[in-house]
Amino acid sequence: MRFSFMRKQGGSHPEEKKEWTRQLQIEEATVPKVLIFPVSMHIGAPAKPIVEVGNQVKVGEMIAEAGGFISANIYSSVSGEVIAIEKRSSASGDVDSIIIKNDYEYTQGEPIIEPGKSKEMSTDDIIETVRKAGIVGMGGATFPTAVKLSPPPGMTIDTLIVNGAECEPYSTSDNRVMIEYADEIVEGIQVIRKLFPKLKKVYIGIEDNKPEALKSMRKATEGMRNIVVQPLKTMYPQGSEKGLIQTMTGREVPPGGLPAEVRCVVMNTSTIRACYRACEFGEPLIERIVSVSGTPITKPKNLRVKIGTPMDSLIEDCGGFSEVPGKVLSGGPMMGKPVSDLGVSIIKGTTAITVLTPEEANEGEEKDCIMCSECLNVCPVSLQPILISDAFDRGNLQKAKELGAMDCIECGNCSFICPSKIPLLDNIRAAKAAIKEQEAG
Q1: What is the pLDDT of residues 406-426, one digit of tens each?
Q2: Percent of the chain residues topping a pLDDT of 70
Q3: Within 10 Å of residue 19's Cβ, how many Cβ atoms?
Q4: What is the pTM of this model?
Q5: Domain 26-109+283-354 falls in which CATH fold?
Q6: Is the omega angle on the peptide bond into residue 152 within 30 degrees of 0, that is, cis?
Q7: How many CB atoms lie within 10 A of CB 368?
């Protein structure tokens, strides 16, 4: 896709394309007849199915349990019958999945905890409830939230940053959550702050291209002196975790380090809302808000979607395609992954479905690097993307690692700015995967 860029050190300014959905209220998505639940919809070990073909399940019933410390439980978002456990397509390739046939009864399972007790919960209760609910980073990172909220011993947290930047073009799902559920985000902040007795400041960072969200969050936090709603310059990738910490606090997370090392925790707005709903209502994570947008989409929308819903159902809710699409992305145009099968399902980290025309999707023919250094200029974590890509192409994973491949935040700036159309992001992603596999033995 072609973008016009305003050059800024360590970032860029792609066309936002948010006007199609920014002011559209959240609508209920159609719940399809068959839903697909990949057991790998989070960073870490795949979840382990605890149901069998033929089992009847209820809404909010666990169907797969965390497969390790860094993993997450998965719950059914409908009631019905487990009709298969098999590999299905996902944005990351074929993944073992639990297939459930919706009975349209929506029989509710038991809440994961007794509702109405969030204000009475201990720190251990909160962490356990977040873990049990299967909550992961809903801004796209999908790192298990209970792990994030449990920093290593000796690390003190004094700053909570609520990430409402939503810098990815097209996507407005978090924007609508801040407008329509500001009070629940604030309640989530009150729950999370109990975990950190030395917490001094809470920042809610929102890019200045979201005036309605800024207004909504300011109203919800009125009179709360230790919560600051902070407008941010609209720049991609303003919402990157380490960059946001530096912008808000002036602290710099060391390469390979954790936010907790500089006394910070960063949480996406939708994630913190999910934590509140788990602790107050006993709700596991079974739905999310998704923006469906792009030139070929007949009627772009923000939709409340049951986890497991195939993408083609959402596209149908939006009136289908008005023209033949060139590319369909799970996510936005910068970090999203292309999908060729519209049966790929919505998972916990799916913020958007973005559809591009053939002209927008035309990346051009790859050429040799012209040594323009543009990829270095726009990298927000000061890497040398072309050198990492070259090392991977040559099969030198050790060199790619030494150059900082594992510190890449996969923002996609390098690929989009590259005049030679070198697939830098794809190569770096592949390098990271290969390094992880090599280190796993």
Answers
A1: 989 888 888 888 888 899 999
A2: 97
A3: 12
A4: 0.91
A5: Ubiquitin-like (UB roll) (3.10.20)
A6: no
A7: 7
Written as six digits, the tokens of 400 are: 């790619």
> Over the stretch 76-109, which tens digit does the pLDDT of each residue have?
999 999 999 999 999 888 999 999 999 999 999 9
- How far apart CA 56 and CA 61 sit, in angstroms, is 10
Which fold does the domain 121-279 belong to in CATH? Rossmann fold (3.40.50)
Give the SS3 label for residue 306: strand
Alpha-carbon distance values, 418 to 61, 392, 412 (Å)? 47, 17, 10
Give the annotated binding-site residues for [4Fe-4S] cluster.
369, 372, 375, 379, 408, 411, 414, 418
Question: What's the token pair of residue 119?
Answer: 């204000």
Q: C-alpha distances in angstroms, 288 versus 135, 304, 352, 354, 402?
A: 11, 6, 10, 16, 38
Is residue 60 within 8 Å of 306, Cβ to Cβ?
no
Using alpha carbons, select from 100, 134, 46, 95 the residue that is nearest to residue 330: 95
Assess contact for 315 and 342: CB atoms under 8 A.
yes
Written as six digits, the tokens of 40 are 């790998």
Structure tokens at 162: 């609520």
Helices (H), 251-381: 269-281, 311-317, 358-361, 374-378
How far is Cα 16 from Cα 392, in angstroms, rounded to an integer?
31
DSSP designation for 12? B
For residue 132, give the 3-state DSSP assignment.
helix
Query: In this predicted model, what pLDDT tens digit does every residue of 323-361 receive, in sequence order?
Result: 999 999 999 999 899 999 999 999 999 999 999 999 888
Positions of CATH 3.10.20.600 in the chain: 26-109+283-354
Strand intervals (E) in 299-413: 301-306, 327-330, 337-339, 352-356
Note whether 240 and 267 are within 8 A (CB): no
Structure tokens at 255: 């390469």
Specify the domain boundaries for CATH 3.40.50.11540 within the chain: 121-279
Structure tokens at 53: 């073909």
CA torsion through residues 82, 86, 89, 90, sign = positive
Q: CA 96, CA 261: separation in Å to the nearest integer? A: 36
Bridge partners (DSSP) listed for residue 34: 101
